[in-house]
Amino acid sequence: MITPSRTEPTRKALLIGASRYRRHSYGDNHPLGIPRVSLTLDLIRAYGALTEEEFQVSRKATPAELEWFHTREYVSAMQRCEALGKVYDRYRQRHNIGNFENPYFPGFFATPATATYGSIQGAERVLEGFMAFNPAGGMHHAAPDAAQGFCFFNDPVLGILRLRREGLRVLYLDIDAHHGDGVEAAFRSDDQVMTCSLHMDTSYAYPFKGGGIEDTGPLNNAVNMPLPKGMNDDEYRHVFGRLWPAVLEAFRPEVIVLQAGTDILGPDPLGKFHISTQLFLEVVERVINDAPRHSDGTPRLLVVGGGGYHPLMLARCWAGVWGLLSGRELPEAIPPEGEALLRAVDWDQDEEEDYFEDLFTSRLDRLVEGEVRREVRERVDALLSAHPALVRGGIMLEKTVTAG
Ligand SMILES: [Zn+2]
């Protein structure tokens, strides 16, 4: 009898990438100047967990596609900067580019445009009956006319707009450590999209405004769960376990877009939470299991990347996400080729920590005991009892009659 390999896919999922992510972007002194998508793909391949059929190459989004959301002036400014090899002052001032936050780098237009098309392409594959994962995406802060928070083009918005063209009701869930402000703002006036973001309270974290429990938007289609520093696994499980069923019940989506930034993971240098890789994957698995289905049972789910500034944590975590999406049971031990890849990354920020060596040999973390603080319980209680859509449960948005 032949035992099937544990790395055979059991679900219909596609992984979207491009060779240009191998080039150095953002520059040496930027938190995103680290290997992310390329390291993730290499680690997945070291596990033997990606077939040629499952891998999709993304092209660049065209200006016309980017202009579904972005202004023509901004898109052409990005193109001109790439052609000129620098950012003019008038562009810097108007579009918030060419500064430390959103620096110039070779491939200034092409790289974010490719990451952006990946989310449109992912939406199209979802429409065709697959799950899709675009780890280069998730740039949730970008605004129509400006870069914000390391994000040039807002690929989650464009992916959602592609799904909206088919008339689908889209639930956007954002588990990045930062508030998904750009996506929320984009759909303020579309009651067929609900955005739900769990994040570091903006009283102490970027973007330093918005994202409060009371920020529900004029149509009550925004759900925001601001959380205190130091969130542990038990706390996050408690909050998510209460909030998620209420959101699903209230909105009843036809498709889900998940922004899976990894900066909630404990060792992340910019995040202030202490979430483990295991708990992150538990949340992703719950989303997969609860997603609406195609007729063959495949979840209607697009996953995009997002923040994550610890390359080793990020690659381990997103390899695990791909394992869940494609229905593979990846071994906990990182295979020798994978360990060599991770050790080759120039990363020593937490070299003194006792978990450091584990980062190279296991894709999971040592679990830390935690308790659920009263403040955390109270916050989720407050959201569930105050949000108009969640209180009424299911009656909002279902069949909105447009006046006039
Ligand atoms: Zn983030």
UniProtKB/TrEMBL annotation:
Histone deacetylase domain location is 30-323
Asked whether the keyword Magnesium is assigned, the reply is: no
The record's InterPro entries line, in alphabetical order, gives:
AcuC, HDAC_I/II, HDACs, His_deacetylse_dom, His_deacetylse_dom_sf, Ureohydrolase_dom_sf
Pathway annotation from the record: Ketone degradation; acetoin degradation
- GO molecular function terms listed in the Swiss-Prot or TrEMBL record: histone deacetylase activity; hydrolase activity
Q: Keywords of this protein's UniProt record, alphabetized?
A: Acetoin catabolism, Hydrolase
Which family is this protein grouped under? Belongs to the histone deacetylase family.
Protein's name in the database: Acetoin utilization protein AcuC
Q: Which organism is it from?
A: Thioalkalivibrio sulfidiphilus (strain HL-EbGR7)
